[in-house]
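Table S2 (continued). Query chain:
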Amino acid sequence: MIIVICYCSRVLRKTRWLALAIAACALAGSATAGTTTRIQVTAAESVWGGVAAELGGSYVTVTSIVANPAADPHDYEPTAIDARALAGADLAITNGAGYDPWATKLLDANPVKHRLTVEAASVVGVSTGSNPHLWYSPASVDRVASAITAALIDLDPTHRAAYAQQGRSFRSRSLHDYSATLASIRTTYAGARIGASESIVAPLAAALKLRVVTPAGLLRAVSEGADPSAKDVASAERQITEHQISVWIENIQNATPDVERLTTLARKSGIPVVSVTETPSPAGITFQAWQTAQLVALKTALARGNA
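Corresponding output:
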């Protein structure tokens, strides 16, 4: 006798989510605040996990789930290990805005009374459907860092002063070169026209006062895993070949065939190309070192493209 278990991929997905939730429940019941000397922090993305590690210092143990800079975070599929990491967290950090819905599902499936959650999108007031690449916005990073510090103090008020000091040090010392490079680019190249492979660059460009002239439809389509229209692709090609942009910025973690063709065209046309990633690269690098290196590359490219 043949028993048909699943009739469609949607049923398979539901079954998989149920299995992950059950696996996580095994740990959730035994995970309580104070079972270890350090606050257990689980971040859906390593970018926020890295920030939390600096803000928490020796008082936290951080686990980051999406940490591979060679993979596309939009395609991430959680494992039972990920589910257990979130279930056992004292503090969970997610991005939100539709970027990591799997993390929200796992947290909702395994409620833990003492656990606090910081969702970056909620902190900065960004909803699903908006640009989710919040860590490319300096203002958003600052607000999320403040929310993480507040959560750490709530969980461990005994070390309030230490968390406050680490927060100040993060801004004044850790982010010093990052902030200085941002200011330098903004002062020198405000108004420069740039092209981009997807919407990841938009928050940073706004902070730098650079003009992203690539069709918005192309930016959105590539970011969402859809095919851009032929009209938008043709417009981006024309901007490149006619040197209407001074720099082309490519997200190498989301290199679709259209993006690869446009990037190749930019190089052949003599347009400086800057490669960026969604996930800190190499793995384990601090937020500020990763972002500052990309900013320095962008500054160099802008100097060439505007010479």
